[in-house]
Amino acid sequence: MSTTDETDTSPAPVTGRLEAELERLLAVESFDPPAGFTRRHPVENDVAAAAADPVTFWADKARELLNWDRPFTTVLNDANPPFYKWFEDGELNLSANCLDRHVAAGRGDRVAFHWAGEEGERRVITYAGLLDETQRLANGLRSLGVGKGDVVGIFLPMIPQVAAAMLACARIGAVHNVVFGGFAPSAVRERMEVSDAKVLITVDGARRKGRTAPVKAAVDAEMGDLKSLERILVVEAVGAAGLGGERAPMTPGRDVWYEELVAAADPVCPPEPMPAEAPLFILYSSGSTAKPKGILHTTAGYLLGVTYTYRTVFDIDPATDIYWCSADVGWITGHSYIIYGPLSNGATSVMYEGAPDYPDFDAWWKLIDEYKVTVFYTAPTAIRSCMKWGAEYPDRHDLSSLRLLGSVGEPINPKAWLWYQQVIGGGRCPVVDTWWQTETGAIMISPVPGVTSTKPGSATKPLPGFSPALLTEQGQPLSEGVGVLVVTQPWPSMLRTLYKDDDRFVETYFSRFGPTTYLVGDAARLDADGYFWIIGRIDDVINVSGHRLSTAEVESAIVAHEAVAESAVVAQADEQTGQAIVAFVTLTGGRVGDDAMVAELRDHVAARIGKLARPKRIIWADDLPKTRSGKIMRRLLRDVAEGRALGDVTTLRDPAVMAALASKVAEAD
Ligand code: WT7
Known about the structure:
This protein folds into 2 domains: 43-522, 3-Layer(aba) Sandwich (Rossmann fold); 545-668, ANL, C-terminal domain (GMP Synthetase, Chain A, domain 3, 2-Layer Sandwich). The chain is 33% helix and 22% strand. An 8-stranded mixed beta sheet has the order 12-11-8-6-7-14-15-24. Strands 5-4-17-16-18-19-20 form a 7-stranded mixed beta sheet, with helices on both faces. It has a 5-stranded antiparallel beta sheet with strand order 22-21-23-25-26, with no helix packed on it. Strand 16, helix 12 (332-344) and strand 17 (348-353) form a beta-alpha-beta unit. Helix 5 (127-143) crosses helix 6 (161-172). Residues 285, 331-333, 408-411, 433-438, 459, 521-522, 534, 537, 543, 546, 548 line the site of 5'-O-[(S)-butoxy(hydroxy)phosphoryl]adenosine (WT7).
């Protein structure tokens, strides 16, 4: 299946002139909105209305932007914080808002997705076509016993069926649980097990850079004895030819071919009116323990958040824009800004099943040229890869259709921001650095293109209706300086809880500063102009290429190897991926680590979590630095990994451990 884009090592012939221009621009602190950019959706009224009364602002937007089967009469129920409810007595169907309303308005022929496969395959999916497939699949799922509130797992690559799968669940009130295609089947199993998924929708095989992974066979090996999982629905994406001669293995009575189910199903499935607070999806994300958090989003508030922010941040005109978000649908970016935000607004998107560097380093730019993409949304790590490959690849193509560029997932370093703005955007496109999280559901801090002046590296200011703020460690409001990022008011697209774990929800997000202040988990800086600069996580979460991983999750995978006695995982700053995983490992019985063991442990982690979690560096340690109470001091390990002078080691049980480690690392370097 698709994996995170791995670093490539080909040389980068960056021209001297570009380099000099970027150096010059690095001194520019702030960029005014480009003169040629004309905004289509004005925001002045929103800014004023949201500032005056955010709850009324959201109520007005909910009426303006969404179609309701039953209008709501209450807006926010905040009687029991942090368990907020929005538009509680209203009812709507999310798939009807994403599909039926556009078709009913005569726009059924509009393209929802231009799908591109990596070997040059092309498909066009219209709104009418997607509605038809969604209805059939919804009926098909019902025939497999899926009803309201049942959980459906989705483990698919970037193929059009993934959109139909999510929308079909929403149509009948089932709850989807999408797992990123780059995760290992054992991680999929864990997520199916903890969410009690009844059905899993997967694929026979997934292609990546000319190779095919036999996904169904791998899924079978993990899922066989999972009691709750009654049925597996299989999309035949690569077929017998793709799998080297034989179709994917199917277990009679349990497994069903997607194509057969859809072809046989009744084509009419009226959308189920769903209560505003009905669960829509669970998306597992990493926290500070090894157990992933099942972040739960509900129907109307989530849809409102993504519908509003999509049009505000990307300034989309559905009739003329061609939008492309290069994320994977298995992350929140894909949920909110590949599927729900664009479809709810009736926009046309590109969906690409492939890598940026296959068959060549210009794969993305070729697509932008071919489809005349106007709005492009990607991640800093990808931009840095493209920088390294060199401007000659984008230069091969006409990128003049682009009018707006977006970034998401991690802080973007000013140099990458400028390269993006200059080389990809030709200096004429606003760059929107969008800050948000799986938990926030929708973008929360971002420039409003055409309005906000941008400072490279800053996500700038809160969007209307959202109230991020900085607090000191003690909880005092900060108007300037470095502090802890929080959100002080509830917002419609906020997570509602952690699936079946209200206690962990309260403990993780609402215990440090009380039940009405949401703790983000990031540190940030506010400058004198009120601009937010995100610094990074304050918990044990690592951000590798914009993907969230917990140190504990990687540690528990490593220590599961029979040769490992103990392990501590930390993040190290990395030019390419933002952060990289460094694992300190103590082997059992005084075994000595060698290159073969490094490779073995990396493979072991890939098999248990996924390739994205493989440590970049493994450091053999005879012992790990622990406090007297036995807690591993990761801060010190980070110092060692990043080659800093050792800080205070007096609280350690055995201070000599650090000196030994440091000299060992220095030797190896
Ligand atoms: C964490 C959330 C939001 C979709 C992708 C990641 C970091 C996200 C930015 C940004 C600086 C960012 C934060 C945040 N992050 N966007 N524009 N600038 N940092 O979603 O997996 O839930 O991760 O990603 O640390 O807390 P996620």
